[in-house]
Design goal:
The complex is a heterodimer of chains A (591) and B (166).
Chain A: E1 6-10, E2 13-17, H1 23-29, E3 53-57, E4 63-67, E5 78-80, H2 84-99, H3 115-122, E6 147-149, H4 159-166, E7 174-176, E8 183-185, H5 202-206, E9 212-214, H6 218-227, E10 232-237, H7 258-268, E11 272-275, H8 276-296, E12 303-304, H9 309-318, H10 332-347, E13 356-362, H11 366-371, E14 387-390, H12 391-400, H13 422-425, H14 432-446, E15 464-471, E16 474-482, H15 484-495, E17 503-507, H16 527-542, H17 552-562, H18 568-574
Parallel strand pairs in A: 1-5, 10-11, 10-13, 12-17, 13-14, 16-17
Antiparallel strand pairs in A: 1-2, 3-4, 3-5, 6-9, 7-8, 15-16
Helix pairs in contact in A: 8-10, 8-14
Chain B: H1 11-20, H2 28-39, H3 44-53, H4 59-68, E1 80-85, H5 88-92, H6 95-106, E2 120-125, E3 137-139, E4 142-144, H7 149-162
Parallel strand pairs in B: 1-2
Antiparallel strand pairs in B: 1-3, 3-4
Helix pairs in contact in B: 1-3, 3-4, 6-7
Classes of the chains: A alpha/beta (591), B alpha+beta (166).
Chain lengths: 591, 166
């Protein structure tokens, strides 16, 4: 903030600005707002929707209409946000967008959360002239288990195209054709299910309408299982769910709802409620020991974390030659899935191998894909985890069940596999897995008790963090990245021999799982992901234990069943393999 | 994507084209033009190959560029590419009868752009900038001025005879 402070006038109020990238940010900082469908603070400005137009008055008296998301702020200008002229333009924009939009709103997945619907209501659009009425409806693309695309709802704002490129560097979605024939689609109009999409759901997270939504077809199946008296339904929920679900029920972002979720899940009808934080602790036990083993015995380094299914799929498709870097540990969801199958029938009466249904609640659309992996199949051909729902879908279940989330009395999870440490809970935020692993690795390597467990340099939602650790003489370097655009750069570093780190933590979503594609939509407010991260860090700071190996249920599990980390039994249950998913079209003749 | 193994696209040729542009994404349009020169259209596998091997591009992005510009064709074009100008001047001077004559001659059904056998393909273009010569046709870069339905038929007959198909 070394730049000079300049001022401009918004709605008669003098407002200071410094290095805001555009006028819209200045307007928002001043506590005011203008409508927008395509502007997303974490993506580049695109200026596609024209809803954020404002009237700008220059000192010489000249007036002009400009889109505030693409206009740099200028000193001395007066900005009018809601003149009649501006309102007329916005109404016209809405009417034109609606003319070509599938307005079957009541049955739309996005109904109630749709920004186009919201503005149409706010601007009182009551008629849509027959400008270019959509005549032919195109088929929905439900080929992906994670996402559904419905181009009849697309307003060509380009947010998904930008998210796919700027966050993940994948450009799975692109604009095709021109003018009135323009559509957003994968290569050559193929369906998403057969594209290189890694299912992160960041496109759905920024979509203002119902054009890309979470594939919620499993929701009915879960209700059916719950209502079936012959089935016993077991549920786990991920770290990031607890600090975001409250947003759907009027709680602030970052408020920790762990106990409420336990209570709500029981009320909905789940028979046992477990916490994925427990299996995050278990992941740390396995992964920290795997890391130490590779470090001390000349194994493949840097070790890549394997919790993020988007990242794993990215590696399997784009860099199959790097798969031996990837930790063989299943993700916390996968570990919990295996543990539930193995031990719940032993520990709980009435649960058998056949009547048990395993459900998980995740902040992530890619977890739906992960649960379907070949490697997560049991001997009888069924998947270890039957259904994966996202935070959003859980929110819908709670609403449908008529539960008063805000006021429900909290409950404890079921035991064992319900207790967790602070190390498990911070898995939801970029840097958390590395920090949790470091806490355990330190004590294992040095044999001493770690006093100060917080590693500040690993925290924060920056996309790239590099941290050096000194494990009493054993120096290690850890790199932490979020978004696959950054991960791709690391892959190049490693291939060029320029990587000097031994551990690489990757999360595909910007900021980590707290900002996953399955979370309540928050793309208009960058602060929400900070608040959710803070929620998890607070959970860590206030919990009873902060190191995974201190979790009493983890100790029991190893003492009674698994023997020790990376034991034969642990490998059988908790580790997995990866496959090359590169298809023919990647054949390279240039190399 | 199994059809790729049997496809006629020679990835080595495509790669040589990319190499000549230093795999620089700024030259995407030029790359696509070169590919189209070789195959007379843009095969899907070629676009995929470019998307995968040029930094900063993806198949979807290449496809987006290819479908944006009218100069690129995703269907094989004929050995002779006929362009009929239907700009304002050509239109009022009678480009439609010329167009219909070509369609009849080549037996092109509605929506079909390349004739059986792949010798000729037909494209309607907007103003070619030769309004003084209206109506204008261009066949493989050769300009034919002041066309009539009879004149174009004669030209096509000559070309067919040269190719030994008439």
């Amino acid at each position: 903030m070394s730049e000079d402070k300049k001022t401009l006038i918004i709605e008669g109020k003098e407002v200071e600005f410094t290095n805001e990238p555009n006028l819209l940010e200045v307007i928002r900082k001043a506590g005011m707002n203008v409508p927008t469908l395509c502007y997303r603070p974490d993506l580049t400005s695109f200026g596609a929707c024209r809803m954020c137009v404002v009237e700008v008055e220059y000192p010489n008296g000249r007036k002009m209409i400009n889109s505030s998301c693409t206009m740099p702020p200028e000193a001395g200008i007066k900005v009018h946000l809601n003149t009649q002229k501006v309102r007329n333009i916005r109404k016209m924009v809405l009417e034109l967008l609606l003319a070509n939009h599938d307005r079957e709103c009541t049955t739309c997945e996005k109904s109630g959360a749709c920004e186009l619907q919201k503005y149409a209501e706010e601007y009182g659009i009551r008629h849509v002239k027959q400008y270019a009425q959509r005549e032919v409806m195109v088929k929905k693309d439900a080929s992906s288990c994670a996402l559904i695309r419905d181009n009849n709802k697309c307003i060509l704002c380009g947010a998904c195209v930008r998210a796919c490129d700027e966050h993940q560097g994948l450009q799975v979605l692109g604009f095709a054709n021109r003018g009135s024939k323009t559509v957003v689609e994968p290569m050559a109009g193929r369906d998403l299910g057969s594209s290189e999409c890694i299912n992160c759901g960041q496109c759905a997270a920024v979509c203002p309408t119902g054009a890309i939504t979470i594939n919620d077809t499993q929701l009915d199946e879960v209700w059916k299982a719950i209502n079936n008296p012959e089935k016993k339904v077991v549920v786990q929920f991920a770290p990031s769910v607890r600090v975001a679900i409250g947003e759907m029920f009027g709680l602030d972002a970052g408020v920790n709802s762990t106990k409420k979720i336990n209570a709500v899940l029981r009320k909905i009808g789940f028979d046992l409620v477990f916490d994925t934080n427990f299996s995050a602790d278990l992941t740390i036990m396995e992964e920290a020991h795997e890391f130490i083993d590779r470090l001390q015995n000349g194994g493949k380094l840097p070790l890549f974390t394997s919790c993020c299914p988007g990242w794993v799929r990215f590696l399997e498709i784009q860099h199959p030659d790097m798969l031996d870097h990837l930790s063989s540990c299943k993700s916390p969801q996968g570990m919990m899935g295996a543990i539930i199958r193995e031990y719940v029938p032993q520990n709980h009466e009435g649960f058998t191998k056949d009547n048990l249904v395993s459900v998980s609640i995740m902040p992530c659309t890619a977890k739906k894909y992960e649960a379907k992996r070949e490697q997560f199949k049991m001997a009888d051909g069924r998947q270890e985890i039957d259904y994966v729902l996202t935070t959003q879908e859980l929110g819908r279940m709670i609403k449908e069940a008529g539960i008063d989330f805000k006021n429900i009395e909290g409950e404890e999870p079921d035991s064992p596999f319900g207790k967790y440490t602070g190390a498990g809970t911070i898995f939801g935020v970029s840097g958390g897995v590395a920090e949790a692993a470091a806490r355990t690795a330190y004590e294992v390597v040095t044999g001493e008790t770690l006093q100060n467990v917080v590693i500040d340099d690993m925290r924060g939602t920056k996309r790239v963090k590099t941290v050096e650790l000194d494990l009493k003489g054993t120096k290690i370097k850890v790199k932490i990245v979020n978004t696959l655009r950054e991960a791709e750069k690391c892959m190049r570093e490693i291939k060029e021999g320029k990587a000097d780190y031994q551990l690489l933590e990757v999360m595909a979503c910007p900021g980590g799982c707290i900002n996953g594609g399955g979370q309540p939509q928050s793309c208009n407010d960058s602060n929400i992901k900070e608040l959710r991260a803070q929620g998890l860090y607070t959970d860590d700071a206030t919990g009873e234990w902060r190191k995974s190996h201190e979790n009493p249920e983890i100790k029991d599990l190893y003492a009674n069943h698994l023997e020790k980390p990376n034991s034969h039994k642990a490998h059988e249950l908790l580790h997995t393999t990866y496959v090359n998913k590169r298809t023919n079209c990647y054949i390279s003749v240039g190399e | 994507m199994t059809e790729i193994a049997t496809s006629k696209v020679n990835f080595r040729d495509i790669d040589n084209i990319l190499k000549s542009f230093d795999y620089n994404k700024s030259y995407l349009i030029a790359m696509l033009q070169k590919v189209q020169e070789v195959y007379r259209y843009l095969p899907e596998e070629a676009m995929t190959y470019i998307g995968e091997h040029v930094d900063g591009l993806s198949p979807a992005t290449v496809y987006g560029v290819a479908t944006f510009y009218a100069q690129f064709s995703l269907e094989p074009k004929g050995k002779y590419e006929i362009k009929v100008c239907d700009g304002t001047a050509c239109h009022v001077r009678g480009s439609m009868p010329v167009l219909n004559a070509i369609r009849n001659k080549l037996n092109l059904k509605e929506g079909q752009t390349t004739c059986e056998g792949g010798l000729f393909s037909l494209e309607i273009v907007s103003c070619l900038g030769a309004c003084g010569l209206a109506p204008v046709c261009v066949i493989n870069d050769k300009v034919y001025p002041q066309m009539t339905s009879d004149a174009i038929s004669t030209i096509l007959d000559t070309l067919m005879k040269e190719e030994g198909v008439a």
